[in-house]
Amino acid sequence: MNHDDFRRLLRDRKAHVEPSPHFVERVIVNLPSSEGLAFAWAARRVIPVTLALAAVLAVAILVVDRPAPSQAATTTGSQDPLEWLLQ
Amino acid sequence: MELVLEWAPVSEGPAIDAEEARLVAASRDGDQDAFAELIDRHKARVFRLAGRFFLRREDVEDVAQETFITAWRRLSTYAAKAPFEHWITRICLRVCYARLSSERRREVPTSSQAPHATPNLVAAIDLERLLARLNPADRFVLLLLDGEGWSVQEIAERIGWTATNVKVRAFRARRRLRRILEERS
After folding, report:
1. If we measure between CA atoms, which residue out of B100, B93, B96, B102 comes closest to residue B161?
2. How far are the Cα atoms of A18, B32, B97, B158 from residue B138, in angstroms, in the given order?
3. Each residue of A4-44: pLDDT tens digit?
4. Residues near A78 by Cβ (< 8 Å), separated by ≥ 6?
5. How far is CA A62 from the centre of its chain?
6. What pLDDT digit, counting tens, does each position of A42-77 carry?
7. Are the beta carbons of A30 and B65 separated by less than 8 Å?
8. Collapsing DSSP states into helix, strand and coil, what is residue A14?
């Protein structure tokens, strides 16, 4: 077989398949429901946004909860600055 | 070589006809009767194209069914700037390529599965053996170029590649084919 034979055979190579009588009905039965499509759309669009928001909130909470350096120094120091009042 | 079919916009062509536009719009709203009408209009084209890549009836039917189910899922992305048949053709090609790629190892058909149109059965089976030695991307391009008789430009438009990309892939596919033919002779 040479290249020309290959091309000629390839041109003739095809299945002559006609759609079966109930093809359309079979496709329609297998279509995903519109509710399912809506859910899939929501999952694709809403879940990433929700996760991103959660991540931002988590970072924000961590930042807010962390004591400021100056405040941390005063509260964790060995001496209470108001200790003289108690003495 | 990995071949990726992008969901690039279908090139613009003659505008979609009014009745088809109505069917598409109704289908988008979930009207399955309208979508059934669209399937009925385009099933012959899809079957014919799938029959270019697959010879068994069940494969052709599966590809056609998957094509229309994918179209239903993605109807919202159809911009209606080009005819619906261009869009459905691209989906069908994408499904055909995915199926070709998922075949772990091509089975050489028996005489009962050889193409009916080929008078020489031995040559037809020989052709299948040859195709089995090509990778899916090469087979895909050669079936469109030499089998379907599409030009480089037509393939580029219908699949969404650049013409250069098609030329490069076709060149590589033909080079590999030539090597296989030389090994056999």
Report:
1. B93
2. 27, 37, 11, 17
3. 888 888 898 989 899 999 999 999 999 987 666 666 666 76
4. none
5. 24
6. 676 778 888 889 999 998 888 887 766 655 555 555
7. yes
8. coil
pLDDT at B184 over 90: no
Q: Which residues of A touch B117 (CB under 8 A)?
A: 12-14, 16
With residues binned 3-state (H G I as helix, E B as strand, rest as coil), the percentages for chain B, rounded to 5, are 70, 0, 30
Total residues belonging to chain A: 87
Q: Which residues of B touch A10 (CB under 8 A)?
A: 127, 142-143, 146-147
**Total CB pairs under 8 A between chain A and B:** 105
Q: Which of B44, B124, B149 sits opposite A11 (nearest CB)?
A: B149
The helix, strand and coil proportions of chain A, stated in percent and rounded to the nearest 5, come to 70, 0, 30
The encoded tokens of residue A81 equal 């600055």
Helix (H) or strand (E) holding B166: helix B163-184
| Alpha-carbon distances, residue A8 vs B25, B145, B157 (angstroms) | 42, 12, 25
Amino acid, res. B22: R
Query: Global pTM?
Result: 0.72
